[in-house]
Design brief:
The chain has 252 residues and is an alpha/beta fold. The protein is 47% helix and 14% strand. The chain has 9 helices and 6 strands, in the order ααβααβαβαβααββα. Helix 4 packs parallel to helix 5 and helix 5 runs parallel beside helix 6. It binds 3-methylbut-3-enyl trihydrogen diphosphate (2 copies) and magnesium ion. Magnesium ion (MG) binds next to loops.
């Protein structure tokens, strides 16, 4: 925690604070399958351990004073996986929700989901809707789970909603702007991620938050998601604190 501590001691200027500590972290939780394979275990065992890693990281985020965590749990493209693995993942999600919902709520955490939830089974959809509603007035932390999520699909859905408004005459084409489009995305009420972490060694976004990450700092680690712990997390935060975010300016 040395980086964070030094930041807390030395910084009173809001500008410095916004650079040192991300407000919103997004994570591509990758490497569960390889973690399991290395131990001759079924892939599901890796996904189970992955759920433990999520609990850990959520705690780390809250302890560090971060306000938003968005995690990629299941992509639009993951529907192409064997049905058995999909079933296991959905069951695991249901368990996670059952086990964690009360704790999340007691800790004043607001839970959101992004993605095409219409593709989920009706019982999961109900469970998700219940969790979202139950925590909707919580304000100490924001956990968002990307489920059946793909950035391109999200953009298409947003464009369809905008086109429908144009068709009825509620919106003029020239009034479509960046803000309008951002608002129409599933992430409409979330700030853009400051830091995006991908575990598992791959250096790609795999259709995660493409629009939202235009100026996000990217951090890739070889650590497999089930192994990702508070030390890895602190390392990522330390790396982020050294970045200079210029947004196309000369940085002065
Ligand atoms: C990430 O781990 C979890 C999901 C994509 C659901 P993987 O299952 O992709 O694990 P690897 O990449 O095969 O190791
Ligand atoms: C990205 O991981 C999706 C999630 C972590 C949920 P994948 O394992 O599906 O990504 P690719 O196939 O390596 O790009
Ligand atoms: Mg993977």
């Amino acid at each position: 925690m040395s980086n964070l501590q030094s930041f807390q001691i030395t910084s009173h200027a809001p500008r410095a604070a916004s650079h040192a500590l991300p407000r919103h972290i997004a994570i591509i939780m990758d490497g569960n399958g390889r973690w399991a394979k290395a131990r001759n275990l079924p892939r599901t065992a890796g996904h189970k351990k992955g759920a433990d890693a999520l609990r850990r990281v959520l705690d780390s985020c809250r302890n560090a004073g971060i306000s938003y965590l968005t995690v990629y749990a299941f992509s639009s493209e993951n529907w192409k996986r064997p049905q058995d693995e999909i079933n296991d993942l959905m069951q695991l999600l249901q368990h996670y929700l059952q086990q964690e919902l009360q704790t999340l709520h007691e800790n004043n955490i607001r839970l959101r989901f992004i993605g095409d939830l219409s593709l989920l089974s009706s019982d999961i959809r109900e469970q998700v809707a219940h969790a979202v509603e139950m925590t909707s007035r919580n304000a100490s932390f924001n956990l968002t789970i990307a489920l059946s999520y793909g950035s391109r699909q999200e953009l298409v859905r947003a464009m369809q909603a905008i086109a429908a408004d144009v068709k009825t005459g509620a919106l003029q084409p020239q009034d479509i702007n960046e803000q309008r489009l951002a608002d129409a995305l599933d992430t409409g009420d979330l700030p853009e991620p400051d830091l995006l972490i991908r575990t598992g060694g791959e250096k790609r976004l795999s259709n995660f938050l493409l629009w939202q990450s235009a100026y996000t700092e990217l951090y890739f680690t070889d650590a497999l998601w089930p192994d990702f712990d508070s030390a890895h997390f602190t390392e990522a935060l330390g790396d982020y604190a050294k970045r200079e975010r210029r947004y196309g300016t000369t940085g002065v």
